[in-house]
Amino acid sequence: MKHMQSKKIVVDYRPPYQTIAWKGDRVVMLDQRLLPGREKYLTCRTGREVARAIRLMVIRGAPAIGIAAAFGCALEALRIRERQVGRFLRMLERSCQEIGKARPTAVNLRWALDRMLTLCYGQAWQEVESLQEALVAESQKILSEDLETNWRIGQAGSALIPRRSTVLTYCNTGTLATGGYGTAAGVIRACWRQGKGIEVLACETRPFLQGARLTAWELMKEGIPVTLITDNMAGHFMRQGRIDCVIVGADRVAANGDVANKIGTYSLAVLAGKHRIPFYVAAPVSTIDFHCLSGREIPIEYRDPEEVTCLAGVRIAARGCKAVNPAFDVTPHALVAALVTEKGVVKPVNRKTLRGLRPSRVEGQTRTADV
């Protein structure tokens, strides 16, 4: 594994829109359910409102969900009127447990809450007010760090993509799914900014259409050539030799390298393997769950079947038609050519190579494993 230097960098990128922001005593997030037709921002004043926004996919994407969870924790900290530190912490932990239930598959949500609670229990706080201020500052630090993390992922991953490549991507992994720049889309963005002259094929990503509604919209806004295809066209274009590589994000990576990502990712990985096309995954180290031994242990979220039977509020299946709607699937690590992180490119992807990315202490999980 080739590690990137850890020196502080200045990210030369400012997104044309803001996915999520802290505004005084509230959180403002772009309502992604309405894109690309409308750009409308939703205001959350409580952790419960943030959790609901996560659950309803107002905001989505593993890193963005983690940022939102941290902001939700900070909002709840400001709302608690209890001045005795011990009781304050117990109340805050209960609120964090509720936020943590919003979506079960994306590990960044739990990671961010663990980090916030580690701050609480990492020292003996004498005053609640000081702790409240520290929690707000920590949540904003998580946001600012995410932009640098994604920039590093983009720089590391761009080395894998030859000039004039056609890159297939899936779901949405850009600014909308992160605090800025993006993971898999960050690699694409880095290649474009380096003048590599790449082109992108974006799968529509049924049933929520994140590729059609979000990824194509994002790339078009920045002038990156993108062509939208339906999910079931990918194999056709692979067989024609029109795809040079596939790059996707991740909602959770198990300790052995198995990857949970948007439903349909596994199918693309199998197709890529059949056609000898490299299949890359881009994700921050915070998405690796070192307590999860393999993909078999990753909980898979099941969403409302009406997301399958209806499209933009219009029913497309017969009334009474049964449907099932798993939001994620798991791709075995053997199908992943490389994992791109802010610490560098990992290949091959397995338990041994990932072990080098593990922090000396997994933040907060010893104290708040139930979050």
Report on the structure:
Strands 1-17-16-11-8-5-6-7 form an eight-stranded mixed beta sheet. It has two domains: 150 residues, translation initiation factor eif-2b, domain 1 (Four Helix Bundle (Hemerythrin (Met), subunit A), Up-down Bundle); 204 residues, Rossmann fold (3-Layer(aba) Sandwich), CATH 3.40.50.10470. With 371 residues, it is α/β, with parallel strands linked by helices. The chain contains eleven helices and 17 strands.
Compact description:
The chain contains eleven helices and 17 strands. The protein has helices at residues 47-55, 62-79, 85-100, 107-121, 128-158, 184-193, 210-221, 234-239, 265-274, 306-309, 351-355; strands at residues 2-3, 20-23, 26-30, 41-44, 166-169, 199-203, 226-229, 245-248, 252-254, 259-262, 279-282, 288-289, 310-311, 314-315, 328-331, 338-341, 344-346. The chain starts with a strand and ends in a 16-residue tail after the last helix.
